[in-house]
Design a protein that fits this description.
The chain is an all-beta fold. Helices cover about 0% and strands about 40% of the residues. The protein has a 24-stranded parallel beta barrel. It is elongated, with a radius of gyration of 30 Å.
C-alpha cells in the first residue's frame, strides 16, 4: 500500500461542497436591450444529486448548480440580421476620404466620426479609423456592405460613447478590418481591439467580417452580442473579449488567437463575465484557452472544434469557467495542452457529444463533475474526470487515461494553471475547494461507463457508490495501482460493475445489496466470463490487457448461489455465502500465484492481516518511537516522484511472493498473510 499512502500524503486539501447563488445584475430598461442578470437555479434532477448514505457514513452531498436565465438574452434587433434600408444613410469610403449626405458625420485627419443616432451603410475602402462618439442614449448601426478598413491604430472601429453599437454585415457581402497598431490609452481607456466599444456591441448580419488585429479582435467593456453572420478573426491577443458577457445566438466563427479565442472576465462584479452560446459553428485555435469566463459558461447547441497550444506559462484549457461550466448539447472536438474542460466550481454535461484529447485532465472541477446525458469520450488524458465529487447519472462515458480514470478529491497531479486574476505564468496544481480529503466520492447511478486506466481506474479519497448503470474498468496492469481504489468504503446497490487489473492492490466493494466478487487469476489477457451454476454466461468482457484480478457485481449475483469465473485458463468456483466474496489488496479468493488462497473477505476493510487494524504488532522493539525503517529516514513526501527508498530499487510487485527485499522481515509476532 506504499503507493496509495504516498498519494494520500501528497493529495491536495479538498472542498466541502458549496452552494453558490449569484446575484443578478440590473435589467436594462432600453427597448432593444437584453437581460444582463441571467442567473437562475433551474431545479430538478439535473441540479440536485439525491442525498444517500454511504456504507462508511460519508454523505452524498446535495449539489446545486446555477444556470443562466436565457429567456431575455437577446433583443429582436440583435438577431434580425437586417436593417431598415429606408432609414439608412450611405457613406462611400475611398482612401482617406468619405462622401455622405448624412448629418452627424465628419471627417478630419483620416478619422471618420459619427456623432448622431442612425443607420449608416458603409461601402468602399478606407485607410483610417471610424469613431462613434454620440450621446449615451443613442443607438448606432453600422452596415458593412463591401467594406475594407485599414488602420495603423489598434482600433479600426472605436466607440467612445453611445448606448449601443450594432455592426451588421450586409447579405452576401465581404468585409474586412485590419488594425496593425499597438494598444494605446485614450482619456484613461486602454483601446486594444480592431472593433473596440465602451458600450454594448452587437454583431449580426448575413455577410462575412474578416478581422486582422495586432491586439484583440472584438472588444466591449460591456456586452458582446452576436446574432449571426460569418466572423473570421486572427488576433494577437483575445479573439472576442466582453467584460460583462459574451452572448452568441448563432453564426460561423473561425478564430485564431494569441491568447483566449473567446474571453469574458469582470474582476469588479462576480455576477458578470459569463459566456452563453445558443448555437453556431466554431473553429477555435488558441495559444490560451478556447473559451474562458470568470463566471458561468453555458453552451446549449453548436459545433465546436477547439485546439489549444499553450506553454507551461499559459493557461491553455479547451473551455474554462471560474464558476460553473454547463454543456446542454452540441458537438465538441477538443484538443488541449491543458485540461479539456475546467471549472473552479461545477461542470455539468446534460447532453451533446464531447470528445477530448488532453495533455492534462480530460475534465476537472474543483467541486463537482456531473454527467447526466450525452456522450463523453476522452481519448487521451492524464486523469479523465477529476473533482471533489463525481456524479454520473446517465449518458455514455469512455475514458483513456495515463493515470487515474476518475479521481475524486485526489488532486495528485501537478498540472493546471492560474485562473482569472492570476498571472499567466502562475502555473500550479489543479485546486479543490477545501475540506477533508475523505469527503470525496464517485457516484454512478446510471449510464454506460468504460474506463481504461494506467493508474487507478476509479479513485475516491472518500467512497465509491454504484446504484445503477453499466460500468467497466480496464486496468491498470501495474501492481502499484488498482482498478477500484477508495479511502473509506465502496457500496453497490444496483447496476453492473466489472473491473480487471493488477491484483496487488485490488479492492472489492465493502457493502452490497447484490453479489460482489473479487478473485485473483493467472496473468493473461483472455476473455473474462462469469457463469451461473447452469453454465449460462451472465457477463463477458474481452479486456485486451494483461490482468490478474477480477471484480464483478450484478443483480444476477445472489447470496446463496454458486458461480464460475473463467479467465486466463482459470475456472474459479465461487460460493456466495454472503453478498461479498473476496477482500482486497491481493488477498481475494482465486488462482494465479495465490493457488487456493484463503478468502480475502475474512478481514474488515482497512485492517491488515489477522485483523490488526493497523495497530502495532505485539512486543515491538524497545527502542521503537514511531521512526521509519532503514532507508526511509530522510524521506520527504513532498519530494517523492515515484522513486523507492534504498532496498526497494529492484522490487517488482508482479514477482512478490511474500518476501521483502533488502533483508527486511516481518516484525516479530506479526502473522504473515497467506500466500
Amino acid at each position: 500500500m506504499l503507493n496509495s499512502k504516498i498519494r494520500k500524503i501528497l493529495a491536495l486539501g479538498v472542498a466541502i461542497l458549496m452552494v453558490f447563488s449569484f446575484v443578478g445584475c440590473e435589467d436594462n430598461a432600453k427597448s432593444d436591450s437584453q437581460n444582463t442578470s441571467a442567473v437562475q437555479n433551474n431545479g430538478g434532477s439535473k441540479d440536485d444529486v439525491p442525498v444517500n448514505q454511504t456504507p462508511s457514513g460519508n454523505t452524498l452531498t446535495e449539489v446545486r448548480v446555477d444556470y443562466l436565465d436565457t429567456s431575455n438574452m437577446f433583443s429582436n434587433r440583435d438577431t434580425s440580421n437586417s436593417y431598415e434600408t429606408n432609414k439608412s444613410e450611405l457613406i462611400t469610403l475611398k482612401g482617406d476620404t468619405a462622401q455622405t449626405n448624412a448629418e452627424g458625420v465628419s471627417l478630419a485627419d483620416g478619422v471618420l466620426t459619427i456623432s448622431e443616432e442612425g443607420i449608416y451603410v458603409l461601402k468602399g475602402d478606407f485607410n483610417g479609423q471610424i469613431i462613434v462618439d454620440a450621446p449615451d442614449t443613442d443607438k448606432i448601426q453600422l452596415v458593412l456592405n463591401g467594406v475594407k478598413i485599414t488602420s495603423d491604430k489598434s482600433a479600426g472601429i472605436y466607440v467612445k460613447q453611445a448606448d449601443k453599437l450594432f455592426v451588421t454585415t450586409a447579405d452576401g457581402s465581404e468585409n474586412s478590418i485590419t488594425a496593425t497598431g499597438n494598444a494605446y490609452t485614450d482619456n484613461g481607456t486602454n483601446v486594444d481591439g480592431a472593433v473596440f466599444s465602451k458600450c454594448d456591441v452587437s454583431v449580426n448580419g448575413k455577410g462575412t467580417l474578416n478581422i486582422e488585429s495586432a491586439t484583440n479582435g472584438i472588444v466591449s467593456k460591456d456586452d458582446v452580442i452576436i446574432g449571426g453572420g460569418t466572423i473570421i478573426i486572427n488576433a494577437g491577443n483575445h479573439g472576442i473579449d466582453g467584460k460583462d458577457s459574451i452572448r452568441i445566438a448563432d453564426g460561423n466563427f473561425t478564430i485564431k488567437s494569441g491568447k483566449d479565442a473567446i474571453h469574458s472576465e469582470n474582476a469588479d462584479d462576480t455576477t458578470k463575465g459569463f459566456v452563453y452560446i445558443a448555437k453556431g459553428d466554431f473553429d477555435l485555435e488558441a495559444t490560451g484557452d478556447g473559451i474562458s469566463s470568470s463566471m458561468i459558461v453555458q453552451l446549449e447547441k453548436g459545433n465546436y472544434n477547439i485546439k489549444t497550444s499553450g506553454s507551461q506559462s499559459t493557461s491553455s484549457k479547451g473551455i474554462k469557467s471560474e464558476t460553473s461550466l454547463i454543456i446542454q448539447g452540441g458537438s465538441f472536438d477538443i484538443t488541449s495542452t491543458d485540461d479539456g474542460l475546467h471549472s473552479s466550481l461545477n461542470t455539468v454535461i446534460d447532453g451533446g457529444t464531447v470528445v477530448i484529447s488532453s495533455s492534462d485532465d480530460g475534465i476537472h472541477s474543483d467541486n463537482n463533475v456531473s454527467i447526466n446525458d450525452g456522450d463523453v469520450i476522452i481519448t487521451d488524458c492524464y486523469e479523465g474526470l477529476e473533482g471533489q465529487t463525481i456524479n454520473i447519472t446517465g449518458g455514455t462515458v469512455e475514458i483513456h487515461a495515463s493515470d487515474d480514470g476518475m479521481n475524486a478529491a485526489g488532486g495528485n497531479d501537478q498540472s493546471g494553471f492560474g485562473g482569472m486574476g492570476k498571472p499567466q505564468g502562475d502555473r500550479g496544481p489543479d485546486g479543490f475547494a477545501g475540506g477533508e480529503s475523505t469527503t470525496g466520492y464517485v457516484n454512478i447511478s446510471g449510464g454506460k461507463v468504460t474506463v481504461y486506466a494506467k493508474g487507478d481506474g476509479i479513485d475516491a479519497n472518500g467512497t465509491v457508490n454504484v446504484s445503477g448503470g453499466e460500468t467497466a474498468v480496464i486496468g491498470p496492469e501495474n501492481g502499484g495501482n488498482s482498478s477500484l481504489d477508495f479511502g473509506k468504503g465502496a457500496e453497490i446497490t444496483g447496476g453492473t460493475f466489472i473491473a480487471v487489473g493488477a491484483k496487488q492492490m485490488a479492492q472489492n466493494f465493502t457493502s452490497s445489496t447484490q453479489g460482489a466478487i473479487l478473485v485473483t487469476v493467472t496473468n493473461g489477457s483472455e476473455k473474462v466470463e462469469i457463469k451461473d451454476n447452469s453454465g449460462k454466461v451472465i457477463y463477458s468482457l474481452d479486456p485486451d490487457i494483461n490482468y490478474t484480478s477480477v471484480v464483478f457485481s450484478s443483480p444476477e449475483i445472489k447470496e446463496g448461489e454458486s458461480y464460475t469465473v473463467s479467465a486466463n485458463g482459470d475456472n474459479l468456483a465461487v460460493e456466495m455465502t454472503s453478498t461479498i466474496y473476496g477482500g482486497g489488496n491481493g488477498f481475494g479468493m482465486g488462482g494465479g500465484n495465490f493457488g487456493e488462497g484463503g478468502p480475502g473477505g475474512m478481514r474488515e476493510p482497512g485492517k491488515g492481516p489477522d485483523g490488526d487494524a493497523g495497530n502495532m504488532p505485539a512486543n515491538p522493539p524497545e527502542d521503537f518511537r514511531g521512526q521509519l525503517p532503514e532507508g526511509f529516514e530522510d524521506f520527504n513526501p513532498e519530494d517523492f516522484r515515484g522513486q523507492l527508498p534504498e532496498g526497494f530499487e529492484d522490487f517488482n510487485f508482479d514477482d512478490f511472493q511474500g518476501q521483502f527485499p533488502g533483508g527486511m522481515e516481518f516484525p516479530q509476532d506479526m502473522q504473515r498473510p497467506v500466500v
